[in-house]
Amino acid sequence: MRYTAKDDEEALKAFDQAIELDPNCARAYAGRAAIFNKMREYQKAIRESEQALNLDPKLPWAFVTRGVAHLGLLNRQKAIEDLNRAIELDPKYAWAYSNRSAAYYFISKYHQALEDANKAIELDPGFSSAYFHRGRALALLNRIQDALEDYDKAIELAPMFPLNLHKDEPFDRYEGC
Prior knowledge:
This protein has helices at 8-21, 26-38, 42-55, 60-72, 76-89, 94-106, 110-123, 128-140, 144-157. By secondary structure, the chain is an all-alpha fold.
């Protein structure tokens, strides 16, 4: 199931219903965390991510949602730790690499940001956010033309980019309980 709710409140209601049906559904809590991140309610996202991890301590999606919340709260080292754990659990998780690229960018580790963005694109060539993150790293590595090409690709993949930066949030990680 690919969940791409356009209305955050409707998405929260859907995850609430999943939790009502199965209060031990870690993925539903991680889904709520992803929505709260999208809404920039990062403390709520952390709370939901932690509930998911209490239920399933090996759920990569919950580590990513908590890592994204930490990024939003400017806790970059905590974000990197969570994203490292997600990648350790699922080395093919493009969203984790893309977000870790953003975290590395914010602590001025541009070569590492570039490596992670490259890996995210290798894993998912249609992932607009990964092109955006790679473009930022390339720009600061003084590879301006390459950066512009990546920004163009991000816009091609998501025409309202960056307004819909989270449009490709991987709700397909919610496979039910």
